[in-house]
Structures are given as C-alpha cells and as structure tokens.
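Researcher: I need the complex structure. Ligand is adenosine-5'-diphosphate. Inputs:
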Amino acid sequence: MINLSGIVKTYPGSSGPVHALKGVSIQVNSGEIFGVIGKSGAGKSTLIRCINMLEKPTVGTVVVDGQELSSMSERDLRDARKKIGMIFQHFNLLSSRTVYDNIAFPLELVGWDKKKIEDAVLPLLDLVGLSDKRNQYPSQLSGGQKQRVGIARALASRPKVLLCDEATSALDPQTTQSILELLKDINKRLGLTIVLITHEMQVIKQICDRVAVIENGVIIEQGPVIDLFAKP
Ligand code: ADP
Ligand code: ADP
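Model: Output:
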C-alpha cells in the first residue's frame, strides 16, 4: 500500500544543513498497522510527513496505492491526498467550528453539498462515539474527545491510509487506551491501513503489526512486532 524508497530529507537549517532522513525505505502492507518508533529528533515526523508529501523528500520515491506521489504535480497531489487522512498530537481542530463543522470541513473544501456532507458526517460521529457532542466547540471537549473529532475528520474523505503523528502523546494513559482501541476498531472494520509514529513502546506493542525503529535518520530494524519485541 505504501512504499518509501531511498528517502533522503535534508533541511536547510540556520547553522548548516540538517540530515533528517538518510536513505530510509519502508513498505507498509494493505490493512496493517505499521508503527515507527524512535527518540525525539530521530526523524519520525519528517518520515510520516513524506508519506503524504507534506514534506518533499530531497531524494527518493513515495508510492501510495500504486501512485507515485513524489513525481506528481501539486494539482494531482491534491487529489491523491484524499486517499490519505492524518491525525495530529495537538488535534489541529478549528476552534471557531463545532464538532460537526470540523468533521465537515474537508468535505466543504472539495465542494460537497450539504445533504451529502450530512450523510457522511453523521455516521462518522456515531463511529467515534460523539453523536451527542455534535454542536459543542473544541474548547468544551476533553483531549480524548478532541482526538475522536480529529479521527472522524480524517476519515471524512474516505481515505485508504490513516497517518497518526504522535496521536496519543498528549493524552493520559487511560485516554490513550481508548484511542488505540478506536484505531484498532477502525483498522478492522474499515480495512484501513494505519501508519503511526510514537516514542512509546506500549503503543507499538498494543496495536502494531509491524514496526520500524528509527535512529538518527536511519531505520535500524524493521519487522513484525512479535519478532522484534517481546509481548508485554
Ligand atoms: P522526530 O519526529 O523523531 O522528533 P523530526 O522529523 O521532527 O524528528 O526531526 C528530525 C530532525 O530534523 C531533527 O534534527 C529536527 O531538528 C530537524 N528538523 C525537523 N524539521 C525541520 C525544519 N523544518 N527545518 C530544519 N530542521 C528540521
Ligand atoms: P490547504 O491545502 O488549503 O491547506 P487542506 O485540504 O490541505 O487545505 O487542509 C485543510 C484542513 O483540512 C487541514 O487542517 C487538514 O488537517 C484538513 N484535511 C484536509 N483533508 C483531510 C483529510 N483527507 N483527512 C484529514 N484532514 C484533512
């Protein structure tokens, strides 16, 4: 489903170039949950952002669902990105919009009419367990509820891939559990391929099928979680 090959990413940086990724290759199979673990500064965020080309690799190819994103025009990339949803550590919700309107937002951007948007958003509210919060604003929600909105918004464009950028790092352990369970449920029910980055081993052990360990911009190990790490 995802094939990153020979990815090099070098940032200009104020005190000379920063080599964030030094030739990284990963392959993610359709329907699996793939984790990337590493310390702060290892290159995780750069790597996951290369999958949807939010960061453009300096060298290397990015193929998602058979399409080579790394050679596309911006215009084609906009379309291709609809297959790739993303959720964030700090949720990135629009504070002036309700729960419903946050989820509807990406669909408004692509010009869907009101009725079609409602038909998409109501089942998503149900899926993430927030039907009764549809008219609340983000400031009225807990961290876990905000991330549920983030997940529903990411799913609105019916992506095949969901990218999770430290999605549980701002949450307490109990809330982390419930979000991980929701992600697992979505993975199973929708057959969605999930890629997540984390610095927490527990997240990897709990829901990932395969894992890559990144250190200093290099993947030092990659394989099934049960082979690389003992069960908890
Ligand atoms: P992680 O997500 O594992 O913490 P990052 O991908 O954020 O790692 O960062 C990898 C390296 O690239 C770090 O040294 C970081 O300081 C650097 N870096 C990240 N983004 C930028 C940027 N926009 N400009 C310059 N350096 C950056
Ligand atoms: P722009 O290119 O004008 O910045 P985008 O469509 O890239 O607009 O994104 C606008 C907002 O909508 C962002 O906050 C982004 O998180 C959200 N968004 C857009 N598309 C998706 C998607 N497929 N999944 C999740 N969120 C999305």
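Model: Summary of the prediction. The pocket of adenosine-5'-diphosphate (ligand 1) is lined by residues 11, 13, 18, 20, 38, 40-46 (CB under 6 Å).
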